[in-house]
Amino acid sequence: MCKVVLAHCDTSSVYAWGGDYSARHIVWPTFPRSAGKLHFNKETGVQFWWGVGTPGASAAKQTGSWAYVILPLIEQSTAYQSIAVESAGSLFACPSRSRQATLPPVEDAYGIYSAGGRSWAKIDYAGNRKVFREYGDPLPVAGVFDGLSQTIAICEKAFDPVIQGGSSWYFDEGLFAGGNMGTVRDGLLIEPDRHGISFERNWGSAHPGGAVFSRLDGSTSFLTGEIDFRLLRAVLSPAGHEVSEQEP
Predict the structure, then answer these.
(1) Which residues, at least 6 apart from 68, have a Cβ–Cβ distance to it below 8 Å?
(2) What angle do CA 100, 197, 228 make, to 5 degrees?
């Protein structure tokens, strides 16, 4: 998957982006303006808008996630053009992770969601939010001053199978939506899949001990859950000039 993202970067000169809502983006007939919107986060008391993928949009104007952007490169051009939000979930699923079947989101203890009554495909992987930035602010490939081999691109995201059920979008929004923490992460913890973990913003997997991270040069490495948070912060930063000198 990381190599597909890098292939996209070769043609666009920027890294695939995190997307976001914009009042200027196209509202497709099948998506009323409320589609892709988290009406209300009950923990923070904040209302959010999420973007929906826009076919053919430039890096500066793309409102969908990085996962939506690379769909044409993984033989999903029809899903990309038609914004078939139920599609492609199996391509972004970790085979080791147990998930409930995806359903239209409903209100739960954490939020009130709106998705046009459709079952948006979920994603088990998250981009590095410091690389896959939001609407209007894509990171140029030349902006990775720390080095491609020293910067994280993608990893599995932390997952609580009880809270993040098939009908919840709490830190688990659909892969076609941009500007949310369902497709990007920036946390400094690597958590195992289980109930009660600190999954918000963090990384994790169903594998014992840690998770496999892809770097921007296409290489991969297994980082343990015991990693020093300062080292993880360094390899998440593309331009902080911190360089990881050793693996945990």
Answers:
(1) 19, 53, 80, 175, 176, 178
(2) 130
Whole-number Å distance between alpha carbons of 162 and 95: 18
d(C-alpha 176, C-alpha 55), whole Å: 11
Mean pLDDT over each residue of the chain, to the nearest integer: 84
In sequence order, the β-bridge partners of residue 38 are 113
In this structure, the chain runs to a length of 248
pLDDT at 104: 93
Strand pairing category for 177-178 and 203-205: unpaired
Token match 């009406």: residue? 39
CA distances from 115 to 135, 172, 210 (A): 20, 13, 33
pLDDT tens for each residue of 70-82: 999 999 999 999 9
CB 60 within 8 A of CB 138: yes
- pLDDT, one tens digit per residue, over 185-244 is 999 999 999 999 999 999 999 998 999 999 999 999 999 999 999 999 999 999 886 665
On the CB side of 132, how many CA atoms lie within 13 Å of its CA? 38
| Residue written as token pair 């430039």 | 58
- Rounded Cα distance, 171 and 237, in Å: 22
